Amino acid sequence: MSAKYEVKVSERLGRYIVAAKDLKAGESILSDNPFILGPSNDTSLVCYNCYLPLMSKFVVCKLCTVVPICPGDGCPQNLPKWHTEYECDFFRTLKLKRAVNPMTMVQNVGFLLVLRAILKKDVDKTSWQEFLQLETHLNVRKGTSVWEYCENTYKFIQSLGLLDNSEDDNLVQKVCAAIDVNSFEVRGPPVPAIGCSEILRGVYLKAALMAHDCVANTHIAINDGNVLVCHASTDIKKGETIYYNYTDPLKGTAIRQQHLLVGKYFKCTCKRCQDVTEMGTYMSSALCLACKTGYISEISNEKWTCHSCDSEYESSEIRRKVQCCSDKLAVINKKDEKELEEYIKNISLVLAPNHYLLLDAKQRLAGILRDAINSQPRPTKKMMRRKIELCKELLPVLEKLTPKICRIKAITLYELHATMAQLAKKLFDGREINGSQYLEELQNAEKCLKKSLEMLLIEPRNSPEGELCAKALEDYRELKNSISGLMLGYTLRATPLLTEEIKAQFRLTKTFNVGNMFLK
Ligand SMILES: C[S@@+](CC[C@H](N)C(=O)[O-])C[C@H]1O[C@@H](n2cnc3c(N)ncnc32)[C@H](O)[C@@H]1O
Questions:
Q1: pLDDT band (50, 70, 90) for residue 494
Q2: Distance 315 CA to ligand 1 centre (A)
């Protein structure tokens, strides 16, 4: 297979990758194993071997008698193991030489990633050198609070005797910075029966070279084996830069830029950041009090202007209003349907309909309604209609901000289809719609599910999204069979479609000409 990308260098981006040939939406670009993977600074105690959270109990590794690992039957077999032989040897020697107390490791789980990176310097010299070449912005970090924080990491690493005198003074600072600037968020393994998992950080040496754009042209997934796979989310022409979005596309420009400035040390100047309307979504805009129909956006540090009637407003006044809406969202009970509805009603009088705070509240509300619809024996039509409405409001925004393939869009379309089909059945069973209306509704649901599947099919099978894809394929089979049944005058199709047949259909029609999880 010829190379899909090549590495370039520019003054603005540093190293970055471009397409080495024309790439089609849905085509895989690269797959990457983690150079290092581990807990974030604020992760609670996890097993050093499999990264499952250690709720209250743990044992120490029998060989080195230092690192905390899963008690009972030990780590589940299917999970990748991270407490390697060389690490175990290192700790065993350390224990003999310095009598290290296992509690030291328990208390310093946040330093594990740095420790594991430094341990690589003697066992995987090539990757270690590649890691050291990653952008660090060390000069900008010097003297800041993050530098101070990393001094503690330095003291800890030094106390373990991992650094010899010939070592660069700033090595630990460099490692911490390379991790901060280049790591991806990785979902840790879910706790059996509970489902929750820790958020880990992983450095992927190939994927780290991707530059950022707030409207990316890639789709990234990390499977249960921690392998990162990157696909083109839109068609990419030979020579075009391959971009990944380092931030949340559903946040407004000010928040995204702040995140990039503080965490990645650059000011984003992409098309979306330069457009006050944010690709026509008005995601950071408020309602104009003068004309009552237009939206106002921040055109300079001092002024907000209405796109419709040109009325002007003081920035400080509008920023205060937006902050007030944001503060309210922070304090309401986001698991309560009524509180969310009330919040949406109130801030809709102040903010543009697609403002990111409204979208946030609507996503949460859709999540509550999904859970209620799925758990109640007789969910109401009102609930279903509201969930459909919320999904339909979210989709056009996603279409503008994340063209073609996008995980949130796939999940939203899946949720939309499920409720459309459920509502149609309820109405048909209650004789509120006739057979042909029922058929039409199911066909509309099928269109949504098909679009969702076209995106879900690139998700790795061994990931939660891959599991959703398997479920969606099964739903698609059932839906197609119901539609055929209805078309044949409610007689069952003689040979119902099988899942394999459906998969084959998707392989043939997979054109991808349509477009961290939708429901919060
Ligand atoms: C994950 S690294 C990417 C690899 C890096 N360019 C290198 O040479 O190692 C992130 C860094 O790349 C640069 N970068 C990425 N996207 C950028 C963008 N859109 N504008 C400016 N700098 C960008 C910034 O220096 C940022 O901190």
A1: very low
A2: 31
Q: What DSSP character marks residue 236?
A: B
Express each pLDDT in 98-143 by its tens digit.
778 888 888 888 899 999 999 999 899 999 999 999 999 999 999 9
Q: What is the mean pLDDT of residues 62-80?
A: 92
Rounded to 5 degrees, what are φ and ψ at 303? -125, 145
Find the 255 Cα to ligand 1 centroid distance in Å.
18
Q: How far is the CA of 155 from the centre of ligand 1 (A)?
A: 29
Whether 52 shows a pLDDT value over 60: the answer reads yes
DSSP 409-444: HHHHHHHHHHHHHHHHHHHHHTTSS-HHHHHHHHHH
Which residues are 184's β-sheet partners? 202
> What is the ipTM metric for this complex?
0.99
Pocket test for ligand 1, best of 181, 185, 210, 244 (most atoms within 8 A of CB): 181
CA of 464 to the centre of ligand 1 (A): 29
Interval 23-28 mean pLDDT = 97
**Per-residue CA distances from 237 to 10, 27, 28, 356 (Å):** 19, 12, 14, 31
What element of type H or E holds 31?
Answer: strand 28-32
Enter the pTM of the model: 0.91
Q: Which atom of ligand 1 is nearest to the CA of 135?
A: 9
pLDDT of residue 513: 25
With vertex at residue 94, the alpha carbon angle to CA 93 and CA 99, rounded to the nearest 5 degrees, is 120
Alpha carbon 382 to its chain centroid, in Å, reads 30
Whose structure tokens read 């009972």? 72
Superfamily classification of domain 5-33+204-244: SET domain (2.170.270.10)
Identify the pLDDT of residue 193: 76
Q: Which two tokens stand for residue 324?
A: 């007030």
What residue ranges do the domains of the chain occupy? 5-33+204-244, 41-199, 402-520
Has residue 9 got a pLDDT over 60?
A: yes
- Coil, helix or strand at residue 354: coil
Ligand 1 atom nearest residue 182's Cα: 1
CB atoms within 10 A of CB 210: 26
